[in-house]
Amino acid sequence: MRRYVIAGNWKMNMTPAATRKFITELAPMVAGKDKCDIVLCVPYVDLAAAIEAAKGTNIKIGAENVHFEKSGAYTGEISAEMLSEIGTEYVIIGHSERRQYFGETDATVNLRTKAALAAGLKVILCLGEVKDERLAGITDEVVAMQTKLDLAGIEKEDLKNVIIAYEPVWAIGTGLTATPEQADETCGVIRKTVAALYGEDAAEAMIIQYGGSMNDGNAKELLAKVNVDGGLIGGASLKTDKFTAIVDAANA
Fold first, then answer.
1. Count of H helices and E strands in the chain?
2. Span 4-251: which CATH code?
3. Which residues contact 70 (CB under 8 A, 6 or more apart)?
4. Nearest to residue 36, comparing CAs of 216, 232, 187, 230?
């Protein structure tokens, strides 16, 4: 059976002090809720504070991006080894905002994923279609191709450390949400693509999150779908009560 994974993506929010306060408040609210894994992916400057505050809790900490080289003249970048050494467990790669605003491509997503896996990090790999692709009826083709390109050259044994987050780009930060049926259908396309690449057993084991404006109001219905194994949560992950409600939905 696949486990739910509820992961918060804080984006460019929270200072280290706010991070410590948030996790201190959140920890007792989600304590003992062990039917899902709980992850907070935070800005680089908050990682040390988050890792320290989360010690002894069931909250795991991740970063929001990683570079694909081990070291070098890449001003402003952070390597997978740097993240791993301070105790980071997860990293988001290929988020739609990275693709839209910072030139992320499937090729660089693939390189980052390989680097993160080599350093022992767990990857939350994001993909999804833009509005024009949805309206043109090519969502299935787009997400299948992204899955193939993003996972190119990654060994089957490494998939245990990869989570795929389906996030329709038109639903990120817009308040729009795919219907539960749309989310389930497209997550199913991703699962079928993984099956074609690695076999049915790998596809059945693959955790596929929905990442398009899941919140405390729609989480229960989305998580009830067979192909939706959790959520990559944006705005609702910045409020302890809303994030806890999503965790509760995964534990129901």
1. 11, 8
2. 3.20.20.70
3. 79, 80, 81, 115
4. 230
Q: Does the pLDDT at position 170 exceed 90?
A: no
Q: Which pLDDT belongs to residue 213? A: 84
N- to C-terminal Cα separation, the chain: 16
* Unique residue bearing structure tokens 């003249």: 73
pTM flag (> 0.90): yes
Instruction: Assess contact for 227 and 208: CB atoms under 8 A.
Output: yes
Using DSSP's 3-state secondary structure scheme, residue 66 falls into coil
Do the Cβ atoms of 41 and 90 come closer than 8 Å? Answer: yes
Token couple for 141: 């083709």
Q: Where are the domains of the chain?
A: 4-251
CA neighbor of 109 nearest in space, from 124, 94, 96: 94
Tell me which residues are annotated as active site: 95, 167
* Residue 2 CB contacts under 8 Å (≥ 6 apart), including other chains: 204, 205, 206, 207, 229
Q: What is the mean pLDDT of residues 134-143?
A: 96
Helix (H) or strand (E) holding 108: helix 106-118
**Pair of tokens at residue 15:** 């200072």
Residue listed under structure tokens 């570079």: 67
